Amino acid sequence: AAFAATYPQLNALNVMGLHSPNSAILSAVIFNALIIIFLIPLALKGVSYKPLSASAMLRRNLWIYGLGGLVVPFIGIKVIDVLLTLLGLA
């Protein structure tokens, strides 16, 4: 996002359709700050333990934390970018 103004060819990598390089960076920083705030209680409390086999536990954790860790940032950053654009902050 930071180099899109200098190298217009990089706009092809804007797959999320973010408003501008500035709003993209600001959205990512805000998302990271919010996710840290939400993950601290999870780290302090821990997760519930369910007696499962190793393969079942791995499968469950990959679905929850693996897929969630890939999808949630894209959705969160896009939502924050839209809000920043609507509020005229970026």
From TrEMBL:
What's an example GO cellular component term for this entry? membrane
Q: Does the keyword Nucleotide-binding apply?
A: no
Query: Sorted alphabetically, which keywords does the UniProt record give?
Result: Hydrolase, Membrane, Transmembrane, Transmembrane helix
Q: What is its EC number?
A: 3.6.3.12
Q: Which GO terms describe its molecular function?
A: ATP binding; hydrolase activity; P-type potassium transmembrane transporter activity
**Which top-rank group of organisms is this from?**
Bacteria
The cross-references to InterPro entries, in alphabetical order and at most eight, read: P-type_ATPase_bsu_IA
The keyword Transferase is assigned to this record: no
- Which residues are listed as membrane-spanning? 24-44, 64-89
**Name of the protein in question:** Potassium-transporting ATPase B chain
